[in-house]
Design a protein that fits this description.
- The chain has 267 residues and is α+β, with helices and mostly antiparallel strands.
- The protein has helices at 18-32, 51-59, 135-150, 173-179, 194-198, 211-214; strands spanning 3-10, 36-45, 63-67, 77-85, 89-96, 108-116, 119-127, 161-165, 191-193, 224-229, 239-245, 260-266.
- The protein has a six-stranded mixed β-sheet. Strands 5-6-7-8-10-9 form a six-stranded mixed β-sheet.
- The chain is globular.
- 45% of the residues are buried.
């Protein structure tokens, strides 16, 4: 199928046996062979280490858009989001996500303007507050995210793509706001949940078979998403296939505490 393959994955920053995990991350990403990657918990260090740039090289000259609210002048390492693209990234914009005082986890969204051979694509990558009791915060963040997407009116043939670790279940109000199951934050802007459209099974991305996830004593859950704007009349953006990856160890090493989601979209 001639389409666009998009994947999202939380790479778990410097947590756990992070140096041992890097080769497993590389192997999993090569196997998926996505055209566009949306990555969360990506590290940069004051000493010059740059995970997004390293992964771009591993994948063979991918282009990078990165965003973090952690200033390396204040912190020895930063944690952020990145979009990696097989096709040129013509520009990028970062947007801080809101949170009430005392609950600000310095969350951010990044938009990458990608010059694909079949036309321009806007891809958004984000990561929302993590605590189970902070649905209200995530709803604020989703509303801001939708406003961010809405700022660009000219889609020129392909719907917007929003990916990330939402730390929220499909039936949560956060996802309902994105997918039209309740009043949408921006009239006319609604997203298709790729897994709901074309996945098979529960699609857990937080899976207690993974010892890194099991250590948190939280139930299995689907909390990572590829969301695609409503398909155009030509079918561009239609979800053809969705799968979970990173759900097995690589040479005995689990690459992250999350599984990722990969989807194939019609051009």
């Amino acid at each position: 199928m001639e389409g666009l393959r998009v994947a999202t994955w939380n790479l778990w920053w410097h947590f756990g046996p992070w140096e041992e995990r890097q080769p497993a991350i590389h192997a999993a990403m090569r196997a998926v062979d996505a055209d566009v990657w949306c990555l969360q918990e990506v590290y940069r260090s004051r000493d010059g280490a740059d995970q997004a740039a390293e992964l771009a090289d591993v994948l063979g000259g991918f282009h990078v858009a990165h965003a973090s609210r952690f200033d390396l002048e204040q912190f020895p390492d930063s944690i952020g989001n990145a979009v990696l693209s097989r096709f040129p990234i013509e520009g990028s914009v970062a947007r801080p996500l809101p949170a009430p005082a005392g609950l600000d986890e310095l969350r951010v969204a990044v938009r990458a303007d990608i010059a694909a051979p079949f036309g321009p694509i806007e891809v958004f990558c984000t990561h929302l507050n993590y605590r189970l009791d902070q649905s209200a915060v995530r709803q604020l963040q989703v509303r801001a995210l939708c406003e961010f997407v809405h700022e660009t009116e000219d889609r020129r043939g392909f719907p917007p793509i929003v990916c990330g670790d939402f730390n929220a279940l499909p039936e949560s109000e956060e996802l309902r706001l994105m997918t039209g199951l309740t009043g949408v934050p921006v009239p006319g802007l609604v997203f298709i949940d790729a897994w709901r459209a074309a996945g098979s099974g529960p699609g857990y991305t937080w899976d207690n078979r993974n010892p890194h996830a099991a250590a948190s004593f939280e139930p299995d859950a689907r909390i990572d998403y590829v969301l695609v704007g409503y398909p155009h009349e030509t079918g561009a953006g239609h979800v053809e296939h969705a799968a979970v990856f990173g759900a097995e160890p690589v040479d005995g090493v689990w690459p992250s505490d999350h599984c990722g989601v990969v989807t194939d979209l019609r051009r």
